[in-house]
């Protein structure tokens, strides 16, 4: 049989295919995605689930003139492959390759960049309103959004607004009943009822919001999808199509274990079996150190509760949710709510650990200031995935938290250098700090297998002397201190003696006493952080120097003032000049 996928270089190549040929294309597209993701890694389940939808949209609509926005964008692999990126799809998420998410700089078919969830309806509505204002009545605007993402505040805000416009907007709800972890909440219950044909008992929420609602229909039934999209193309105003799909469709293992196969790493393309490391003696991931430690602490301290906005697996709060379901909560994709929920709990005397990926806390900035910090509520923020996260790229790097948190009064900001520090600061924080604290730690493995040591108290605002020197002092924050150590140890003894290294631990409050000692004894200071150099830890050190009128040579190293794209973390550190080799060379240039 002739391969059809290889003949599709743009959506126009779909237009003359028969339904049977489109069905064959769906089969080939699925196999293509599976084969590449099996070796190159990436988000699998979501893209497999929307293969038919992707084909149907590009078959019916006139992209890129019609605007198609994929919410989160992790399900857009099929879209990328059908819109001219088939031959480079094997570079997906790799350094200098294509992005794992839609990106307006990559293709005109990517109408809007995504990565964080629940933005698609607002952006599509904005485009639809722009088209109206510009006198274009023909242009279509389509937002494809998942059942977990539509439950987020932003999506509700957009639906609420869209319903009182006559904008040419089509919202397609891709309902597979799961996010990364199972979807939660009353809306999920409603959708389940609707799918079971029980919606007549309840008013239709989307019709109540003035949308022309249709569905639920089987999102794997290509002829049905095509028929419905064709009809909707001629309906004016806001429209809502509810489709039901299976995440991981077409790969048995991915359908059976949808959480793992959201992004499974390498796997056997034929059997679906994951290819995992046989080395059993790796250190635990930082997320697991958090996940195990909170249970240990919660067993002794009944006031402790845990909160995650939709990332129980990614944060490892899932262990506590399983063991103490009445004290650990997945609140859905709702970072703003998670923060204010934690504030409410803290106000009433509980000790909430609110675990949010650094990049996703950006969405709840006002809540951190207005609901937590102003009221000095002792919420313990655990910011996972701080620093460069790797292949997810610019939308997901956690590189702004130091800059955006350290300017907030009352906030304590701490970065552990290793897993033992992380445990000890969690222990210290739950004993009561009378102020909010943010603890930032990176994605991936911690430093040592010897993580489970007896708890020790950490003195707030105290830095750590790693080694003394007499000429160049390195001030590091967080786990990048370990890379600095490797770089320093590469020098021969005579040069090494000149170099001091201080892991400052707290960005706020700074260890002023230690800083006065350092600034009095060294002629060069180099700061290292895995966050933005603009307004970050290095900036705090510059402010200290200015305030106290110290004038050594100061070099600030961190993530530069541009968005770092995707690649593995090692490669990206080199791009940012904060890898071991760059650190060595920078130190050398000062000696
Ligand atoms: C603001 C924000 N919070 C959390 C995430 C992490 N995240 C990525 S995909 C996802 C689940 C999305 O589920 P759904 O919308 O149902 O899409 P599906 O994966 O089922 O296609 C989550 C929580 C994110 N991308 N953005
Ligand atoms: C698409 C998305 O936002 C998540 O799937 C994210 O990629 C998870 O990142 P981790 O792999 O670091 O948990
Ligand atoms: Mg879903």
UniProtKB/TrEMBL annotation:
Protein name as annotated: 1-deoxy-D-xylulose-5-phosphate synthase
UniProtKB keywords: Isoprene biosynthesis, Magnesium, Metal-binding, Thiamine biosynthesis, Thiamine pyrophosphate, Transferase
The protein's annotated pathway: Metabolic intermediate biosynthesis; 1-deoxy-D-xylulose 5-phosphate biosynthesis; 1-deoxy-D-xylulose 5-phosphate from D-glyceraldehyde 3-phosphate and pyruvate: step 1/1
SMART domains membership: Transket_pyr
The keyword Magnesium appears for this protein: yes
Gene that encodes it: dxs
Cofactor note: Binds 1 Mg(2+) ion per subunit. Binds 1 thiamine pyrophosphate per subunit.
Subunit structure, as described in the record: Homodimer.
ATP-binding keyword on record: no
An example Gene Ontology molecular-function term: 1-deoxy-D-xylulose-5-phosphate synthase activity
Residues engaged in binding Mg(2+): 147, 176
Residue ranges annotated for the Transketolase-like pyrimidine-binding domain, each copy included: 284-449
Catalysis performed (reactions): D-glyceraldehyde 3-phosphate + pyruvate + H(+) = 1-deoxy-D-xylulose 5-phosphate + CO2
Required co-factors: Mg(2+); thiamine diphosphate
Summary of the function given for this chain in its UniProt record: Catalyzes the acyloin condensation reaction between C atoms 2 and 3 of pyruvate and glyceraldehyde 3-phosphate to yield 1-deoxy-D-xylulose-5-phosphate (DXP).
Positions with a binding annotation for thiamine diphosphate: 74, 115-117, 148-149, 176, 335
Family: Belongs to the transketolase family. DXPS subfamily.
Organism, scientific name: Wenyingzhuangia gilva
């Amino acid at each position: 049989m002739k391969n059809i996928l290889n003949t599709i270089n743009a959506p126009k190549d779909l237009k003359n295919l028969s339904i049977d040929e489109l069905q064959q294309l769906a089969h080939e597209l699925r196999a293509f995605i599976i084969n590449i993701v099996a070796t190159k890694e990436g988000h699998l389940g979501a893209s497999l689930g929307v293969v038919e939808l992707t084909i149907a949209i590009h078959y019916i609509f006139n992209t890129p003139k019609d605007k198609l926005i994929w919410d989160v964008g992790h399900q857009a692999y099929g879209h990328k492959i059908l819109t001219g990126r088939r031959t480079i799809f094997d570079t997906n998420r790799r350094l200098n390759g294509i992005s794992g998410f839609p990106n307006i700089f990559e293709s005109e078919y990517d109408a809007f960049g995504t990565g964080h969830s629940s933005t698609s309806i607002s952006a599509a509505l904005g485009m639809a309103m722009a088209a109206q204002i510009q006198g274009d009545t023909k242009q279509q605007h389509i937002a494809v959004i998942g059942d977990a993402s539509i439950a987020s505040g932003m999506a509700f805000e957009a639906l609420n607004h869209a319903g009182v416009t006559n904008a040419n907007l089509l919202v397609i709800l891709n309902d597979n009943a799961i996010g990364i972890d199972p979807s939660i909440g009353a809306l999920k219950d409603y959708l389940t009822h609707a799918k079971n044909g029980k919606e007549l008992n309840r008013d239709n929420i989307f019709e109540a919001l003035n949308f022309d609602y249709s569905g639920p229909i089987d999102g794997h039934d290509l002829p049905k999808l095509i028929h419905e999209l064709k009809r909707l193309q001629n309906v004016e105003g806001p429209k809502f199509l509810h489709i039901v799909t299976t995440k991981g469709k077409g790969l048995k293992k991915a359908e059976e274990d949808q959480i793992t196969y959201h992004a499974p790493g390498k796997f056997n393309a034929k059997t679906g079996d994951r290819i995992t490391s046989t080395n059993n003696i790796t250190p635990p991931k930082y997320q697991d150190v958090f996940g195990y430690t909170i249970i240990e602490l919660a067993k002794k301290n009944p006031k402790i509760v845990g909160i995650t906005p939709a990332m129980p697996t990614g944060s490892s709060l899932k262990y506590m949710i399983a063991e103490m379901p009445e004290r650990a909560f997945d609140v859905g994709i709702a970072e703003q709510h998670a923060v204010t929920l934690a504030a409410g709990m803290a106000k009433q005397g509980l000790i909430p650990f609110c675990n949010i990926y650094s990049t996703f806390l950006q969405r709840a900035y006002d809540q951190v200031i207005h609901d937590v910090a102003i009221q000095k509520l002792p919420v313990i923020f655990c910011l996972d995935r701080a620093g460069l996260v790797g292949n997810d790229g610019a939308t997901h790097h956690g590189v702004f938290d130091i800059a955006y948190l350290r300017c907030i009064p009352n906030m304590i900001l701490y970065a552990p250098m290793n897993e033992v520090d992380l445990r000890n600061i969690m222990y210290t924080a739950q004993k009561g700090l009378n102020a909010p604290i943010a603890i930032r730690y990176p994605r991936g493995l911690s430093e040592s297998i010897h993580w489970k040591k007896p708890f020790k108290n950490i003195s707030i605002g105290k830095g750590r002397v790693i080694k003394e020197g007499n000429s160049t002092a390195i001030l590091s924050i967080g786990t990048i201190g370990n890379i600095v150590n490797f770089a320093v140890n590469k020098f021969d003894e005579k040069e090494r003696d000149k170099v001091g290294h201080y892991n400052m631990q707290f960005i706020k409050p700074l260890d002023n006493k230690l800083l006065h000692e350092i600034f009095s004894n060294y002629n060069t200071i180099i700061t290292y952080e895995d966050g933005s150099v603009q307004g970050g830890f290095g900036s705090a050190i510059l402010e200290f120097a200015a305030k106290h009128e110290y004038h050594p040579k100061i070099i600030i190293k961190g993530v530069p003032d541009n968005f770092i794209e995707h690649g593995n973390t090692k490669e990206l550190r080199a791009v940012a000049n904060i890898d071991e080799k760059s650190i060595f060379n920078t130190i050398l240039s000062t000696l």
